[in-house]
Amino acid sequence: MARLSGPYFVQPPVMSVRVEDSMDVMIVRDTVRRAGSLLGFSPANRAQLASAAATLAELVLKTGEPQDLHLNGVRQGEKVGLQISSEAPWLANVATSNVLIALRSKLGDLVDEILVEGNDPPNILLVMWLSEAVRRDGHREDEDGDDKP
Amino acid sequence: MALEALLIEDSKTQAAQIKDTLESVGLRVRVAFDGPDGLRDAIENPPSLIVLDVKLPTMDGFQVCRRLKRNPATQDVPVIMLTEKADPKATMSGLRAGADDYIPKDIFAAEHLINTLQELGIL
Question: Does B68 contact A at CB distance below 8 Å?
Answer without folding.
Answer: no
